[in-house]
Every structure is written in structure tokens, then in C-alpha cells.
Amino acid sequence: QSLITGLIHICVRRLSKNELMPQANAIMGAVLQVLQSPGSAAHEESFNIMGFMAAALEKDFKPYVEYSNQSILRGLQNIHDVAVCRTAVSAVGDIVESQGVDFEAFAEQIMQCFVELLKNSEVDRKIKPLVFSKISDIALAIEGNFQKYAPLVLHIIVHASRTPMPNNDGGEDSEDLCAHITELRESILEAYTGILLGLKDGNKQDFIIGVYDDIMAFIQLCVHDAKRLNMMTTIKRVIALLGDLGECFGVRVRTVLEDPLVQEMLDFAVKDSNMREDALFTIQVRDRLRNIQQ
């Protein structure tokens, strides 16, 4: 099965959407048959194929979402096979992006699994940042409908955001932990941004108010450590989130945007081609807020 699914994966990646469409039933039928075989070593490759098919077929993947759901849920619950669980999480992201707001019909069970993954201390630490990232995708896709998940998810994110960055003493274990915390924080920033923008699109952004102070404390922590440890992706995501917060909550964000460390970060980012767009947006928001009377 592993060899067959590997070959299918190679083939589908070389085909266009128009070429895949006539073969989609056969491909997805084979994938789902493999995923129904317990303990199959081909599950990881099968979820990769599923994710690619969703991305390639876009909205035309919709007939397969319902039939794929139970296999995905089993993959998400398979926490002892880290590779399979991670590829199942990634496949969810591809399906969410392909279906957009229509994913709402399947969101509840997936979100239940995601919450369990985040709460379970036995889950491998490589999985949780990816889950936060895909929660962002779900929030962006289903917009205001994410409100039913927001209170519990935000509570979990706030708890995770308080994980401290260890002192890097140069040891291998210390470096690995620093890398993990950095990845975790970047995924949390992504989750906050996705949830904020998704709720805003549904005019439900006030759900964020309850954790606003926690978000700001987390941003300050990230700003301090990102400058100290030269974390480029963290800087980029902090800047993007600050601009979005300024757009949503106006003058209450002004103090943070005027913070000297944030100013220094914006001055640096605007000169970097990978961060310039986000930096210019946040600077524009900051300058607009300067002219508003509290």
C-alpha cells in the first residue's frame, strides 16, 4: 500500500485540475480505502494525497469532504503516530482553504479534535503549533460562525502563550526547546490574527475583547524576545497582528504602537522586503490613530 500511495501521490502532483477531475473518484476511493485499513503504513501518504486533491480541485472537492471526514477524525486522534496526525492536521488546512465558508458544516467535529489535541499533555509538541495554524485557517474561512468556538479556543491560546522562553545556554536540548517555543509563539500569533480577522468579517470581533489584555501582554513578550533573539518570522507576525488590532480596536492600541521597541521593529521591518508590506500597513494604522482624539 505504501508503494502504491506513494506512486499515486507522485502522479497527482503532476496533473492539472482538468486532468485530475475525471480521475478524482478513483483516486479518492483508493485513498479512503487505504485509510480504512487499521495500522496501515500508508496513512501518512494518503493524507498528503487528500490534501493535494483538495487544494487542486478547490470547490470541486466538496463531494469528498463528507466521505473523508471520519478518516480525518481517526487521523487526528492517532496521537501516537506523530507523522500521521500531523499530515491529517495539514489535510484539514487544505480542505478548509478549498471550501471556505462551506466548511462550517464540518467544523464542529474537527474543532473538537483540535481542542483535545491542544489540551492533551501526551500530544507530541510538534503537533500543537500546526493545530494553532489550522485553527487560524478555519476562523478565516467560516468568519463570524467561529464565535461558537472562540471562548474555549482563546482560553487555550492564552494559556499556551504564557509558555516562557528558556535561557539558551548553548546546549542542544536548550536550542531545541527555544526553537519549539518560537514555533509555538509564531503559530499563536497566526491563530490570533486568523480569529480576529474571521470574527471581524462576521462583525463579531468583540469576542476578542475578553482576552485583549492577554494578547497585548503576549505581544510585548514576543517583541522583547524577538529583538533579543533576532526572530524574523515572529517580528513579521507581531507587526501584522498589531496592524489588524489597530484596525479593529482603534485608539486603545495606540499606546502599544507607540512603544519604542515596536517603533524600532517597524523601522527595521519597513526596510526588509519580506516584511515591508505588513510594516507599511501597521505604520499607516499607527499614523491614523495618532490623529484621533481619545
Structural class: mainly alpha
Fraction in helix: over 70%
Largest sheet: none
Quote the beta fraction.
under 5%
> Could you state the order of secondary-structure elements as H and E?
HHHHHHHHHHHHHHH
Instruction: Work out the number of β strands.
Output: 0
In DSSP terms, counting alpha (H) and pi (I) runs of 4 or more, how many helices? 15
Termini separation: 65 Å
* Shape designation: globular
Task: Report the uncertain regions.
Answer: none
Which radius of gyration do the C-alpha atoms yield?
Answer: 21 Å
Average pLDDT number: 92
Explain what you see.
This protein has 294 residues and is mostly helical. Helices cover 73% and strands 0% of the residues. The chain has 15 helices and no strands. The chain has helices at 2-13, 17-20, 24-35, 43-57, 62-77, 82-99, 104-119, 128-142, 150-161, 172-201, 212-229, 232-249, 254-257, 260-269, 276-290. Helix 4 (43-57) packs parallel to helix 6 (82-99) and helix 7 (104-119) runs antiparallel to helix 8. The chain is globular, with a radius of gyration of 21 Å. The N and C termini lie far apart (65 Å).
